[in-house]
Every structure is written in C-alpha cells, then in structure tokens.
Amino acid sequence: MKDYFLWRHRVLLTGAALLLFSAHMIWTGVRQDQRAGRAVSPIMDLMRPVQVAAARLAEGASGITGDYMDLVGVQRENRRLEAQLASEQSEEARLNELEAENQHLSELLDLKQMLDYKTVAANVIGADASGLSHTLVLEGGAGDGFTPGMAVISPQGVVGRIITTSANASRVLLIDDHNSAFDALDQRTRVRGIISGVVDGGVVMKYVDRSDDVKPGDTIVTSGLDGIFPRGMLVGNVTGVEDQGSGLFFYITVDPAADFSRLEQVMIITQRINPPPDVAPKG
Hints:
By secondary structure, this protein is α+β, with helices and mostly antiparallel strands. It folds into 2 domains: 36-114; 119-269, Thrombin, subunit H (Beta Barrel). The protein is 38% helix and 26% strand. The chain has a 6-stranded antiparallel beta barrel with strand order 1-2-5-4-3-12. A hairpin with a 5-residue loop joins strand 7 (192-197) and strand 8 (203-206).
C-alpha cells in the first residue's frame, strides 16, 4: 500500500525533491563559507597547474612574437644604416678625388705661370705594357698641336719628351729609358753631364770628369743646351758617385724627382726651346 502511494504520487514527490534540491543549490551558492565553497576548492586546486601552464604558454608566445618583430625591426634599421654609410663613404671618396684633382691642377697652373713658354696640360692614359721601353701615353696628339720632340714636365720635375703622335694621343719617352739623353748640370758646382736611362732601370749622369766636384745629395737640373727642356728644370738628386775601372769619368747615379708610376697629369711645352746664350756647349 505504501509502495502504491509512492508510485501514484511519484511525479509530485520527484518535483518536490528537485525543488528542494534547487533551493539548496541556490542557498549554498550564495553562502561561500559553506559546503559548496569547500566542494569547489579541490577542483580549483587540480585545475591550477593547467591554468598556470596555459597562461605562461600564452605569455611565452606573446614574448616570442614581440622578440621576432623587434628583430625584424633591428635588421631593417641595420640595412638602412649600412646603405646610408655606403652612400656617405662613396660621397667622401668622390670629394677626396675632386680635392686631389684640384690639387694636381693647381700645381700644374703654378708650373705654367712659372714658365715663360707656351704649355698645354694633358692626362696620362697609359704606359708601356711590354717593359721593353719606358714610355707613357698621353691624351692629346697631333690634333692638339703636339709634335715629336716636345718636352713633357710635371710639377715634381722633368718627365721626358714626345716621340710619336696620332690624331688624339701621344707617346712619351721617359728620362729613365736607355734611349733617352739630355744635357744637365750640378746646381751646386755647375758641373755638366748627360742624363740618360739604363737598360736595367734607373738614371745616370754620364761624361763627368773624375776631377769634377759632384757629391751624393747634389741637385741636378736641366741646362737648356739640348733645345728640349728649359734651363733650370729639376731632374733629381745624386745618389752615388763611383770610380769604375780606369776610365776618365765618374759613374753617377741620380734619383729622378718625378715618380713616373704615379703621374696623372703632365704639362707639354709646345714652344721651341732656345738654348741660353750664357752657357757654352759642353766639349
């Protein structure tokens, strides 16, 4: 009979039980200091490591992303700075080259003003590649009024003379070539001799008597008697004076004042050179 009562009123009893349970849950949810709060606490403790790991993973990912973006920005800035530095270095090199060219031109202008002869400046554009002769090639030739025999000089000293020309280029025989020869003198003692190149390189002063006074360190200049170079042009300095064998003459070595390997511009004397009247020919 009792079971029949429960079965007949099962819906009502079940609804009442659920209502009481709902009221209990609402009541325990409001009261945080009761059993419901204590029941949730173990679950929170279990979930805490997972939550901490997830939070740290998120922070790490954010940090990696931030570091990557910073690295990309640094690399981009480095490329910009490198390009700027290269541009500045290129501009500095260009300005230095202009300054060097201006210095060369200024020296040529001073030389031109010092001489009482007509002169034309020319660029060095080549040199003898075979090594059999000591020559330079100049920009400018017959079309510019250059002819064989004209003297070529630099602000540092005597260079050589033109031996051949084309319409737009000229070849210069340097004073250290063994086929070169011109009259010169010791500026200190006025002793004269012939300046010539030697086959294995270098410059010597020939036909100086052993009785003449020539010493290492003396300055050698052109005499002007050969009709090639004006008088008083610097040739170089004596580096050695030797007695060789039983000959009549000294063997005198001379260090040229001009560095032929570094010449960029030279001056051509386009006017005929007249020997000075106050110096008698050697012999």
